[in-house]
Amino acid sequence: MSTNMFVNLPVRNLGKAIAFFTKLGFKFNDEFTDEKATCMIVAENIFVMLLVKEFFQTFISKEIADAKYSTEVIITLSASSRESVDEMVRRAVQAGATTPNGKQDDGWMYGHGFQDLDGHLWAFMCIDESVLRQTD
What we know:
Elements: E1 5-11, H1 14-23, E2 27-29, E3 37-43, E4 46-52, H2 53-57, E5 74-78, H3 82-94, E6 104-105, E7 109-115, E8 121-127, H4 129-134
Parallel strand pairs: 1-4, 5-8
Antiparallel strand pairs: 2-3, 3-4, 6-7, 7-8
């Protein structure tokens, strides 16, 4: 049995969050979607549960951090090319995201990211293994 990964994120407005991530090309599992939550499919075994803040709070006893003012995690996904990194960030910005940081280009690794509508940080990176092997 393979391991699945579920990242749970609180959102202020589920409909707006779904519309935002749909513009980025993500799909959702209708079986795990209602007025309180949705399951965004990132990859075969990777999912992001977008939960309205009130519902998210039922799973924790601590206060929910406001991602617009503090950072607890950066969700980083691999990309197949530099162009796909740039395209994902471009689409995110068109959908309402911001880019609090510039591109990172280390030669062997290229990345860029955005802050979503709720302030969560997302990064996309491409590793050029041919260049990486040359540095060994």
